[in-house]
Amino acid sequence: MVSYHDLYGCHVDQWKKAADDWIALSRRSLAAADDVRAQGKMPLDEHWADATGKKAGKRLEDIANRLEAGGDIIKGVAMVLDALAYSMEWSQRTLFHAAELAREYGLRIQDGRAIGAYSGAAPTGPNVPQNVRDAYAKESAHISEVDGLIEESLRQASQADAKASAELAKLAKTINVASPSQAHNDIETETAHIEIDILRGDIPVGKDPHLVRAWWDGLTSEQQKALMRADPVTIADLKGLPPDVGKELRGLDGKIDRVEMVRYALDHWNKKDELDYGPVGNCTNFVSSSLEAGGMQKKIDPWLGLLGDNTWGRESGLGIGWDWADKHAYHSKSWARAEGLQNFLLHNGSKEVPRSEARPGDIVFYEQVAPDHETAQGESHHAAVVTSVTPDGDIKLTQHTSSFQNVSLAAREHVATNNHGEQRIRIVRPSPNWY
């Protein structure tokens, strides 16, 4: 359990610096893996084809794999440290707010608790003047508010400390992992989930609305925005926040409820799609379903219905197991094709935004830049929903094919680049203009 004095005096900037150092180390490890393959393994395969050359090439590939896996694991360490740093910063801010309120109310902090003029000497009896009774009641309410914030700040800090400690100890045992796939898909994915879990632990879920409001008011505007981007669904569901918070999270224009869109993605990331579009279309089918859950209305051609070129949406279908007919006659061309959905959105009010401005509810498209045997150059071939942006700026995706929840865009982009060559990441903010 983190104590009052531990939290009050901790230097969160040191954890942030440590996380930055681990990120730099991760990049060097990944760059070294690329160099070993490009300058060692590839020339060896081209110019030394005998048994000795193959043996040397196999050894170089093993070294590259270990460097790549190590880079991903190291990034996982950085994710945990970043989450710990921001969690401690936010919980420390709540503690400072409690101390500020104590001074404002004429209280003092002793052994981590608020103390007032009547502490330990409550006025009792029939002869106590009314003004004294009123002063005692007022002081008691102030003490309760301050103590509630202190307890909440220590709860937040303690959960972050415990989760980060456990995950870092677990990561320390992965130093011999030589499989990039295991590092990408299992280890780094788990650390991304721990990162979100630590940040979510700073939200006073289920607490009294008055405490929630006092907690929120104590955060800086920047910290409030960071929490809204990191976990929009939990913040939107919290009782006691100003109404404007929910409006901003859901979308000020009222056309798409971004919170419900993200909620759907997070709840359905590992659930089977109603129709199987295969590896080419399931990802975009999932994104369209998320947009539908967020309330995006259909766009139907007055003559051709959903068969028109500039349409989006789906109908119920035949319901007799004819998947081909359901996919082609009852779903628009843009429903389950990344290139089609991207172009439809951009031609109908939506806009592309830079990575630095990404927020939950945006759509990520992967556009093929390098020559590839599966996808034409310049074509977008994959889509995912942005479900979180952590305070360090890392964009988290939720997707199908393959199914992942709240994984790092940077990590998945690295995998796509390794498998298919250079990618252009396009982030589109849905903003329908047909209704």
From TrEMBL:
Top-rank taxon, per record: Bacteria
Domain Putative amidase: 257-410
InterPro entries in UniProt: Amidase_6
Alphabetical list of PANTHER family matching this protein: EXPORTED PROTEIN (PTHR40032:SF1), EXPORTED PROTEIN-RELATED (PTHR40032)
Name the record gives this protein: Putative amidase domain-containing protein
